[in-house]
Amino acid sequence: MTAEGVVAAARRVSPMVWVGVIAVAAVLLYWPMTSTTTELRQHSQLLVSVAAVLGVNVATGYGGMISLGHGVFVGVGAFGTAYFVDDMSLPWMLAIVLGVITAGIAGALVGLPALRIKGIHLALVTLGLAIVFQPLAKRFPTFTGGVSGRAVDAHFDAPSWFGGGTRYADAVWRYLWVILVLGLAILLTRNLIQGRPGRAIRAIRDNDTAAAVHGVNLVATRVGTFAVSAALAGLAGALQVLLVPFASQETYTAQASLVLYATAVIGGLGFIWGSVVGVAAREIVTWLGVQLSTVDGLGVVSEFFALLDEEAFVFGVGLIALTFVFPLGLVGATRRPPGTDSRIRRVVRRLRARYSMAD
């Protein structure tokens, strides 16, 4: 691309996107400078969850296939990576790639029912998969560790030139790798969605009959979409094992899958940034709940704020509120479909009109 093309592409980017990029970069730089080893690991795990939510977004937001079981693919990626790096003694990066591929293959197999069913029926199938995953994982102790889970003996520690040998240096090293891998995953997903495969995916979502008439391969596109979305979720599981060398089926419950779906909805389905915003909104609301619950003199109100520390409560209330206020999610609230005003712009216009009449 020429310099003129780069400048033109930059001008087409919304100012809100640039604000978001700068804000995220500032936070990513701030965390290592102010966090303890434990806090930095928690921040890294927060970033990892973006990949899982992005996987849900690809399947549901872009592909139109409602999936309530993506926590299963997170588990497959985690167990697969643990097996490859520990039992097969493969290098970490190769083990992560193979773990992601394993999750993608599992997603392709699960995506086969999407060829014949859709909507609520597909959602129920994926939810059923999330429900049976835990008891099923217990039956394969060699791979999953059974009831107690499996510990990973291999550790992803910082090299000597990076200051390896201290817990904090190791935490920073893993944190940087998570940022690098997650950034690459977001970039590749964005290129996929904006390219020819992405146009085919959205065409099937909007009207599969018309897409087939125009030459889109429904079978390959639907199965491929589910495979890519599962691979992204598997990447989250693989990075979780990199951060904490332990994997347990107790982590990948049906509720965890529902939380991933809710996070994608809250952030905004059909928007790459929605995955980031959804995870950020979850953490901000939880943090506010913890802070406000400690304020004295609020009585029952303090008990309500204390509930904000519960993920299930936060997402339940969030989904109800967004359904009425921002049906396109937080990112979608700032977008204006052709010929219409966004909800935020309509509210601002009404407030201006009201105050002008009062004057």
Mean pLDDT: 84
Largest sheet entry? 2 strands, antiparallel
Q: How many helix segments?
A: 17
- Dominant shape: globular
Helix/strand/pairing category: mainly alpha
Q: Provide the spatial order of strands within the biggest beta sheet.
A: 1-2
Q: What fraction, in percent, of the residue positions are helical?
A: over 70%
Strand content: under 5%
| Assembly classification | single chain
In angstroms, what is the radius of gyration?
A: 22 Å
Low-confidence stretches: 6-11, 337-341
Count of individual beta strands: 2
The end-to-end distance, rounded to whole angstroms, is: 54 Å
Order of helices and strands: HHHHHHHEHHHHEHHHHHH
Number of structural units classed as domains: 2
Task: Summarize the SSE layout with pairings.
Layout: H1 3-12, H2 15-34, H3 37-62, H4 70-87, H5 92-111, H6 120-138, H7 141-144, E1 150-151, H8 167-194, H9 196-206, H10 208-213, H11 218-243, E2 246-247, H12 254-267, H13 272-293, H14 300-306, H15 311-324, H16 329-332, H17 343-358
Helix pairs in contact: 3-8, 3-11, 3-12, 3-13, 4-5, 4-11, 5-11, 8-9, 8-11, 9-11, 12-13, 12-15, 13-14
What does this entry look like structurally?
This protein has 17 helices and two strands. α3 (37-62) crosses α12 (254-267), α4 runs antiparallel to α5 (92-111) and α8 crosses α9 (196-206). It is 74% helix and 1% strand. It has a two-stranded antiparallel ribbon with strand order 1-2. It folds into two domains: 14-252, no CATH class; 253-359, no CATH class. With 359 residues, the chain is mostly helical. The longest helix is centred in the middle third of the chain and has 28 residues, at 167-194. It is globular and about 60 Å long.
